[in-house]
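Let's practice the habit of predicting before peeking. Look at the sequence and jot down your guess about where helices and strands might fall. Then scroll down.
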Amino acid sequence: MLTSLNRAAEPEFDTSHFRSALSQFATGVTVITTRDERGGFFGLTASSFNSVSLTPPLVLWSLGSNSRSLPLFSANSHYVINVLAGDQAALAERFASRVDDRFDGVDFMLSQTGLPILAGVSAWFECHNRSRYPEGDHVIFVGEVERCAFESKPALVFHDRRFAQVGS
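Done guessing? Here is the structure:
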């Protein structure tokens, strides 16, 4: 069957098959933090993080279009992307859960814009919320990095629907 070169052909697989294929790509794990509408802290686990540009320093991450936290991240001027270290799988699970106060008992310091930087992470990026692009069932956020820091340590990765530690 001939298809137009101007658009993609219909997928030859279902969503479940696509998700399983994607699970074979190991990704780093982040917790992205900001403030909620009452001025409290909010954070979520995301593995959809990537660099975009060195000059200017840009990174991206994505969030589901139906996520209840989409309005928070869309409205706020800044967020912090915390790259989790290999021993922080419990933090990834906590910030992926529906716990009322995800920050209860979690050690952190405040960034220059007053957002949580989680203790023990391998890197963090404080970003200005530069732009957003709706694509498919997600919104792609592009952040302009204003400050960042790192500590070389083993990384937490997500592969085949499980957390693992890599590196030395």
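How did you do? The radius of gyration is 17 Å.
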